[in-house]
Each structure stands twice: as structure tokens, then as C-alpha cells.
Amino acid sequence: MRRLTSGPHAACLALWVAVSIGSCSRLPGDAAVAAAAPAEAPIRVPTEGLWLEARLEGPGSPVRFELGGLVVGSPYRIDVYDRFRKSERGEDASTKTSLTRPDWRSAEGYAGTHDGFYYSDDPGGIVFLAADDMVRASFETSKADGLGFFRLFVRPVDAAEYERRRRVETMSDGIVPTITSGTPGIAAIAPRYGLFLHGSSIVPAARDLHGAYAAGGDQIFLTAEAGRFIELPEVASTTSFVLNSPRRAEAPEVARRIAAASAILIDGGDQSRYVASWKDSAALEAMNEAARRGVPFGGNSAGLAVLGQFVYSAMHEHSLSAEEALGDPYNEWMTLEIQFLRLPGMEGVITESHFSERRREGRLIAFMARLLQDGAVARSRLLGVGVDENTCLVIDASGRALVYGPGSAWLFVAETSPARCVPGRPLEWPGRAVRAIELKGAEAGADYGLWKDARSLPPTHYYGVRDGLLDSSSP
């Protein structure tokens, strides 16, 4: 096993080296690693496969491996283990991978599916045909919290596995950029319904449960950004559709594929692009048809924002702050959409992502006040849902609420109606106006009982608003 740390000379500098040959099915443990001299030659990949490990020390400071001994024209696979795909070693980095030829040029099949990189929140592995007897593999992070330890396993694969895992780029209906792995439509599948609300970044344990609910069928990944692709495990195929215009959202083949899916995951980014492109479209109706059929649904960040019955559509480029929302709940940036998706379990719900990190409590309360004032929903049915980063709220197949990850999911329940919610004036909603319930996450998932009863759980605290200023009180 070889270990490297990142830095400007990481391409050829092995700070200390040891070799460990493993199999794909079993990860090595913490066996003693012998020291060795720095290595200048490429790391030879044996037929049994090779484990490597390294540490990312800073954003923009990559670790690079030169992988040699490859058979030109033969297929290989790289599996990256980091915080999105952990082993018993507890990896904690957040990596993105790029492959190049020995002269640093790209080759067909080497380019990643997003910004030239392969992102590790997609667990499908990187498969490629060797263009030379050596490939350069570079691993880096752009996130300040993405530093740390990661591992990879490199091995040859057979032609059948390569064909099953490789990603093919096409144009559906002649207008929709599409990436596909696997072979869609092999058999009719009866999936299990569930909802997967990722606050930001795909949470591995929740992602794996989502894939299991697909029951070996076809996954659809919906995005507004070219090249994005996240593959759930245990699915027969994954297809990514770039639906970033009303014309593309009307493509008949795309709508047919969405309606026939066994799992659907909506990408992050900018929810205004989803609302502007999908509203009243064939694609949106196909999503609702899939939900009626019991297809498990998930969304990450902006994808989470559109899962509720009510949506903050963010139709202006301006990023609405809590202070602005509370200072005037009818300001021009308070764009709310009613009845976008129709997902069982999301009735009466409006969601927020990046919740605690971006201090969105006040914004969510302002959204709730507007919905009540406008008569969009009865107070007894309204529920605000906020999810922290690296955390996922799951409503599982049995209707239970589970929270995965290190953060929390938050439920906001209106105890009274706003005293003043009018254009041009600060919100007035005094006293114990909103009950806040914290659902703390756990790596293996914390169980909070039936989702339909979750709003009755004990409060963590209460919120009120006086003249546009948020205050809180103990239960």
C-alpha cells in the first residue's frame, strides 16, 4: 500500500511506501506498514488489484499517482473511498478525481462527468480503457472541510463489467444532454417508496438505502447543469438528464423514462432553474406519476428545496436573507411556488437546505407566515422542514422518520397565526409562535418514529417575531 500527502511535488514523491495486494470484495485492515524509500517509477497495477492511500492537506493541493503496468486498450476500474464512501478505516476527505495520459492530455473516456472531474459522492467507480501503459490519477478537493484521509483500489475488469459501468453521453430526443451507465429497461421493477432529503452533499447511508429501494431497477438523475451524474448503488442503470429549459422538459422520451423509473434523485444547484424549466411540463407530470406509482424520491440542496408542496423558488439572483424576509414578508425576493411536485408525505411542507450553517430559521418562519396569511394552507397542516449540511432526513418505506449524518433535521410547527403579515411592514408574530423540534442525526440513522406523528414530538425551543426581529425561548 502506498501513502502520499498532497503538495506541489506529490506527482513523484512517496513520503513512505508499502505495498498491499487486496481483492475488491474485502478491504484491508490496519496491518503494519513497512517503510520504504521514495519511489520515482510509476506504481505498477497487478492483475489482483492494488490499494493506495493518501491525505489531502489543502484545497487546490492535489495528490497524484502514476499508475503503470497497464495493458493498452484494456479496461480498469478505480474505486475511491472517502467520506462519501467509507470503509472500516473511516476515511474523511472529500475528493474529486481526474485522469490524464502520461503527457497530461485527456483521452476518450478519461474526462469526468462534471468540470472534467469524477466526484466521489457518486459511488459507481471510475472505469476507463487504458490509452497508454500508464495513467496519471489526480485527487483534490475544493472544500475547506474536504481535507483528510482517503483510499483507492485499482484493478483490471472484464469487458462485461466495463460495458455495465461505463458512461455514455448522448442526446435524448435530439435536444436533452444525457449520460447513461448500464442498460435501462431490462425488466419491470416494483420499487419501495421513500423520501430522501439531503441538506447539502449526498449522505452515504441514505444514498445506499435509496438505491436499495430501487430494487435493481432504473435510476433517473435530474439536473440543470451539463455533465452532472450521481449514481445510486444496486441499480440496473443510471441516466442523467439535463433539463434546464421548458423545451427540454417537454421532451417525450425523457418524460417516458422518468415515469418508468425505479428511483429518482434531483441534483443541487439553483432551484429557480427547476421551477422555471419544469413548471406545468411533461417531465414534471412524469415525476408526479412516478411518485404515485411508489418510486423513491430524493433531492440534494436545491433538489431538496423543490420536494415540498410549497417551494421557495428563488426566482431572483439576489440571495434572500432572514433579515430581509422578516423585515418585509412580501418583499420582491419572497417568491413562493404552490403545488410544484406532489409527493406523498410532503403535503403542507416547505423545506430549507443548509439550514443551521446558513442560519435560515428566520427565513423559514417568514415563508410559513406568508403561506398562512395568503390562505395557502391550514395552520394544522403546515410544516417547515430544515435540513443541515451533510445530513439527510429520510421517510422510509414504513413511514418512519430517520435522520442520517452529523447534523440535524428541524421541524417548525406554527402554534398561532401571524399578528401582522402585510406588504412593506416587518413581520409581527409574538410569543411562542413557532415550535422548533430538533431531530439529531446519527451515522447509522436516528429513528424518530412515524413521520405523520413527528410534529407532535417535544420541542427544543420556541420562536417568536417582534417587529421583524427573531427571538427564542425555552420550552
Offer a concise description of the structure.
β12 (167-172) and β13 form a beta hairpin.
What does this 3D model show about the protein?
This protein is an alpha+beta fold and 475 residues long. It has 2 domains: 2-165, Sandwich (Jelly Rolls); 167-473, Rossmann fold (3-Layer(aba) Sandwich), CATH 3.40.50.880. The protein contains 9 helices and 29 strands. The strands form 5 sheets. A 10-stranded mixed beta sheet has the order 12-13-16-15-17-18-14-23-24-27. Helix 4 packs parallel to helix 6 (282-292).
Keywords:
globular, Rossmann fold, 475 residues, alpha+beta, ten-stranded mixed beta sheet, disordered N terminus, Jelly Rolls
Layout of strands and helices, then pairs:
Blueprint: E1 2-5, E2 16-17, E3 43-44, E4 50-56, E5 63-68, E6 75-81, E7 96-100, E8 118-119, E9 126-129, E10 134-140, E11 148-156, H1 159-165, E12 167-172, E13 176-182, E14 195-198, H2 204-213, E15 218-223, E16 237-242, H3 246-249, H4 252-259, E17 263-266, H5 271-278, H6 282-292, E18 297-300, H7 302-305, E19 310-312, H8 322-327, E20 336-338, E21 349-352, H9 361-373, E22 383-387, E23 392-395, E24 400-404, E25 408-414, E26 429-440, E27 446-450, E28 461-466, E29 469-473
